[in-house]
Amino acid sequence: MEENKEIKSQAIVEVIDSGPLRITGNFMIKDLQRDKESVPDEVYLCRCGKSANKPYCDESHKK
């Protein structure tokens, strides 16, 4: 039986004008397979849909 554990986190989400979401703090990202990936203190997530490295921004929005 899988145990549901509460994870305490504190994250700040900043919307960058014409750019990605900047997330800082203590957080985790779960992928579609429900795997957990630890994230460093800062990550940029794609909002334009053009990134070749989704969900992470690769600055394709600048092209």
CA-based shape: globular
Number of helices: 0
Q: What is the averaged pLDDT score?
A: 83
Oligomer description: single chain
Element pattern in H and E: EEEEE
Physical arrangement of strands within the biggest beta sheet: 1-2-5
* Total beta strands: 5
Estimated structural class: mainly beta
Main beta-sheet annotation: 3 strands, antiparallel
Radius of gyration: 14 Å
Strand content: 25-35%
> How many domain units?
1
Which percent range fits the helix content? under 10%
Unreliable stretches (pLDDT < 50, length at least 5) are: none
Distance between the termini: 48 Å
Set out the fold topology.
Elements: E1 10-15, E2 21-26, E3 28-30, E4 36-38, E5 42-45
Antiparallel strand pairs: 1-2, 2-5, 3-4
Question: Would you give an account of this structure?
Answer:
The protein contains no helices and 5 strands. The strands form 2 sheets. Strands 1-2-5 form a 3-stranded antiparallel sheet, with no helix packed on it. Strands 3-4 form a two-stranded antiparallel sheet. It is mostly beta strands. It has one domain. The chain has strands spanning 10-15, 21-26, 28-30, 36-38, 42-45. 0% of the residues lie in helices and 35% in strands.
